[in-house]
Amino acid sequence: MKLNIRVIPVLAMLVAVSIILTRTMAVMVPVAGAMTLRLSFGEIPIIIAGIIFGPLAGFMAGIAADLLGYMINTFGGAYIPGLTLSAGLTGLIPGLLLRNVSKELTFWRILGAIAISEVIVSICLNTFWLSLAMGVPFVALLPARILARLILIVIYTLVIHTVVNRSFVLSLRERQA
Length: 177
Prior knowledge:
Elements: H1 7-23, E1 27-31, E2 34-39, H2 43-53, H3 55-72, H4 81-98, H5 107-134, H6 138-164, H7 167-176
Antiparallel strand pairs: 1-2
Helix pairs in contact: 1-2, 1-3, 2-3, 2-4, 2-6, 3-4, 4-5, 5-6
């Protein structure tokens, strides 16, 4: 990743969009009596940052979005450092998996990268962090979180595939290579 005068504003914009999508347009769903399932599209800009600018940029964008977003709207919960790490990994993993891909990112490659990332981060790690923080058994949270992620993986893939294969984004990716 090359941090230059062109990259920083785009990353800042992706962080801002992520915060807006996560903190103001999210739906909280109670699972096992605790508000442990948030449905939002805030991960999309972070994943895009990782794909376009590389894994380190995706990691930094995820951490920045989580920290700044928490300062803006806590959703009434305590700060959980593990969720900040997970937000960074949300940008890092797809960036690592898709960084050496040719010009066009196919639907299936993006689907695979997002599925791997979501299984590791959202289903395993985030469920673990929430289980620890809320005192709800991991197994009680898992079914609803798996169902939600299966739906969101497909939506994320469709949106990200559409965005990253546009000509202006392809030119950004070429400049970063």
